[in-house]
Amino acid sequence: MCLAGLVLAGGAGQPHADEAAAAPGSETGMVRMSLPQAQALAQQALRQGQPRTAYELTEGLLAADPDNGHAHFLRAHALGQLKDYRTGRKSAARAYRVANTDVQRFEAAKLAAELSFADDSYTVSQLWLRRAVHYAPTEELRSQYVKAFRNVRRTNPLRFELQFSVNPSDNVNNGSNSPYNLIEGSPLVGTLSPSARAISGVVAKTDIRGAYRVWKGDGQETHITGRLLSREIRFNDPVPGISGSDISSLRAQLGLRHLWAPGKSGYWSFDINGGRTWYGGSPYYDFAGVGVQRLQKLTDRLNLSLGTHVEEQFDKTVPVTDATVYSVFTGLSYALGTGGELGAQLQFRDIDSDGRNRASQQWSLVATYTLGRQIGPAEVSVSLGHSILDYEQYWVILPVRGGRTDESWFGGVTATFKDYSYMGFVPVVSVNAEKSRSNISRFDVDQTAVSFGIRSEF
Question: How many domains in the chain?
């Protein structure tokens, strides 16, 4: 490669590291140097604040070897100093793709994240920071870039979350564990159809949530929010008269959220949203709701949460079954000195409707415990809950005297495998079980499910 002054003009071929050419002051007036020498000169130009010279040097380096990761890395630095952040990010991305070691991938990823942030591309910066976290050579650097990711996320007006799981279950339709429908022990209805019995299969759940900050003030923020919740069901074996798609569901909503933190000890959240729910592939009901929540820090370890929500549901097929759903909850969480956490939540839900078998009241209590240490490769949490569901009026051909009452116990164990993290996403395995008993045997339900999913650890 030939250099006129400090500007690389390029050579006819790819020279070896020990090849040399004429230098300034010689007969040709040109400087001839090896590839490592040109690379070192580009680095020196960057240190001396000469990004254009460094950029022009990398042109010759990449002409000689398009997969020279170090040259792409130097070019990205030069473009960053020239404030061409977007093009610089592309060069850093190329350096990442052709890197040969994890350290090289880490350096290229963190440079791409920095250039993306400088270009106000915060979501792209978060993606590159996840890659930097994954390839960080030490735990100290990993923690540093996890913190950087959180800082960028706070700056980013756009935020989204994805949860996905696949759940094999012996009762995907919440069906009865008995072939008979007994009411207070009397066989007045007879045998249940196959579709009302417990059906084994697989449930795939996808929950996508997003928010975009449209305003920010002193201790206040306003976001446009959205959510898409899908529950797809497939049966292990054919069932007469029903398929998994007949009981699959989809919920889409759009809303507005305002956060207000009047002090450092907690904040308020005010929500308004609306959308539509589909069941079996057909529109089921439209909805609109409002809610308010409060998170209060009581001590350094103890937090209180409470809230209420009201939702109007407008049935798309039978207007008489329109409903108003009221819900109230309160919860406590306590951080243990061992690093674990204890939690409890109490919820009341009331459905007011003129539709038959729609009006009900339900109380639920759930307790959780997260261990402060790993068991083998997994962080483990357990939960246990109890629920009572009451219908003052319920019909099974004829009105059921005393209505319907269901009592349920449920619990589960969840293992999170942080040692198998990829870009900050970790595998999660849960085993859950539920037993429900009712005065109407159709709602005597036993089910066990195993859930395989992924979640973000930061």
Answer: 2
CA dist., res. 403 & res. 25, Å (int): 103
Beta strands 2-4 and 31-32 are: antiparallel
Give dist(CA 449, CA 458) in Å, integer: 27
**Are the beta carbons of 202 and 245 closer than 8 angstroms?**
no
Say if residues 430 and 145 touch (Cβ distance below 8 Å).
no
Give tens-digit pLDDT for 150-205. 999 999 999 999 999 999 999 999 999 988 888 877 766 678 899 999 999 999 99
Find the domain containing 395 and state its range.
161-456
Q: What are 365-393's pLDDT values in tens digits? A: 999 999 988 999 999 999 999 999 999 99
Enumerate residues 6+ apart whose C-beta is below 8 A from 450: 167, 168, 169, 429, 430, 431, 432
Torsion angle, alpha carbons of 24, 26, 29, 34, to 10: -60
Contact 187, 179 (CB under 8 A): no
Q: How far is CA 168 from CA 173, 203, 208, 363, 394, in A?
A: 12, 6, 21, 27, 32
Query: CA angle, corner 272, sides to 267 and 353, nearest 5?
Result: 120
Q: For residue 290, give both structure tokens.
A: 């409002």
* DSSP secondary structure code for residue 320 in this structure: G
* Residue 108 three-state SS: helix
Q: What share of the chain is helix, strand, coil (3-state, %, to 5)?
A: 25, 50, 25
Whether 168 and 449 have beta carbons less than 8 Å apart is answered as yes
Closest CA to 133 of 109, 116, 153, 154: 109
Pair (149, 179) in one structural domain: no
Query: Are both 187 and 147 inside the same structural domain?
Result: no
**Chain centroid offset of residue 449 CA:** 22
CB atoms within 10 A of CB 397: 8
State both tokens at 131. Answer: 């890659």
Residues 264 and 296 in one domain: yes
Same domain, 203 and 240: yes
Give the chain's residues under pLDDT 70: 1-31, 187-189
> What's the rounded Cα separation, in Å, for the pair 87 and 204?
40
**Tokens 């440079």 sit on residue:** 111
Domain end among 121, 154, 187: 154
Which of 347-382 are b and which e, b meaning 16 or more Cβ less than 10 Å from the residue's Cβ? bebebebeeeebbbebebebebbbbeeeeeebbbbe
